[in-house]
Specification:
- By secondary structure, this protein is mostly helical.
- It is built from four helices and no strands.
């Protein structure tokens, strides 16, 4: 079975423009998550060098809802 013969993944996540491309890539090869993490950290470092500490503060503020969801998921089991 060729890669082109594989059924396309369904769902709203795979239909989004940029996130869908990343999700399909991660579904095909799980190791690509690490490349995504390195890319995001690189962008954060470049933005911090360019604009300073406000970038770190904004990044921390955007991670607050993510941490809340993780903590709720952990407590729910």
């Amino acid at each position: 079975m060729a890669l082109a013969d594989a059924p396309a993944p369904t769902g709203i996540l795979y239909r989004l423009p940029i996130i869908g491309i990343i999700a399909r890539d991660i579904a095909r090869e799980p190791d690509s998550v690490f490349y995504l993490i390195v890319g995001i950290l690189s962008l954060l470092i470049i933005a911090t060098v360019q604009w300073g500490l406000p970038v770190l503060a904004m990044a921390a503020l955007t991670m607050v809802p993510v941490m809340f969801v993780l903590l709720i998921a952990i407590t729910r089991g």
